[in-house]
Design brief:
By secondary structure, this protein is of the alpha/beta class. The chain has one domain: Spore Coat Polysaccharide Biosynthesis Protein SpsA, Chain A (Alpha-Beta Complex), CATH 3.90.550.10. It is 38% helix and 14% strand. It has 9 helices and 7 strands, in the order E-H-E-H-E-H-E-H-E-H-E-H-H-E-H-H. The chain has a 7-stranded mixed sheet with strand order 3-2-1-4-6-5-7, with helices on both faces. It is globular, with a radius of gyration of 18 Å. The relative contact order is 0.15.
Length: 260
């Protein structure tokens, strides 16, 4: 049976790039496109309505992680078998969607990451040198802690098998940018399979990009996450965040369906 593929777009002030992103999506590979607007103050909603997307609107700017939580919840409600996050800022190539879902369709992976560092030079494509060095350093640490050998963890181009989002407790994660790494830690803790494909990246004024100060704060939060994950793996730290929902519910008393 052909899986239902739902694209989710976490949007914030993406009015100038949303149309370009949507028009390059391979429509024959996508069943539904959901856009969650996180309190935009530009023309994002107007463009989304013109494109006849499925739209959900936050009443204010809650943050990138909060946006993803709504994206995934609505995609699961819509019956998605595969959920693909595509940033509407046109930084990642939308035409590569068939390639990013292929390992999941074939049954070879549960989460696929689109890596900017897997092929070619991200710096030549416009990635700031300080961001490149930070990315490489954090990726090295994450591979060490998670026991993996991926080229990049810090990508916003991702495809999930439905079972992943049904299992990990992503609702407990941060409303900020560190959400991206928290959900990967949850995927690793639940022993799902992760694959990656090479994707080119575009850097231009309209594309979203964190400042140096924001990136430093993001890096520090990742270091704290890795320390907690290492302690969790060693049995020295207990965390509901790293427990799968199925594991938590299995410990409830009969007739009690509330999380502990």
């Amino acid at each position: 049976m052909t899986p239902k593929v739902v694209v989710v777009m976490p949007a914030y002030n993406a009015g100038r790039t949303l149309r370009m992103t949507y028009e390059q999506l391979p429509k024959d590979s996508v069943n539904l496109v959901i856009l969650v607007d996180d309190g935009s103050t530009d023309q994002t909603l107007e463009v989304a309505r013109e494109l006849k997307l499925e739209i959900f609107v936050h009443d204010r700017n809650y943050g990138y992680g909060a946006n993803q939580k709504t994206c995934y919840a609505e995609a699961l409600k819509a019956g998605a078998d595969i959920v693909v996050m595509v940033h509407p800022d046109y930084q990642y190539d939308p035409t590569l969607l068939p390639q990013i879902i292929e390992p999941i369709v074939k049954g070879d992976a549960d989460l696929v990451l689109g890596s900017r560092l897997m092929g070619g030079s991200a710096v030549r494509q416009g990635m700031p040198w300080w961001k490149y060095l930070g990315n490489r350093s954090l990726t090295w640490l994450e591979n060490l802690v998670f026991g993996l050998s991926l080229s990049e963890f810090h990508t916003g181009y991702r495809a999930f098998r439905r079972e992943v989002l049904d299992t990990v407790n992503y609702a407990m994660n941060s409303d900020g940018f560190v959400f991206d790494q928290q959900i990967i830690a949850q995927v690793v803790a639940a022993r799902f399979r992760i694959a990656e494909i090479a994707v080119p990246v575009r850097y231009f004024p309209e594309a979203s990009s964190a400042s140096f100060v924001d990136s430093v704060g993001y890096g520090l939060r990742i270091l704290l996450l890795l320390a907690r994950f290492a302690l969790y793996r060693s049995g020295l730290y207990r965390s509901r965040r790293f427990q799968s929902l199925s594991a938590r519910y299995s410990r409830l008393a009969p007739g009690d369906d509330r999380p502990q």
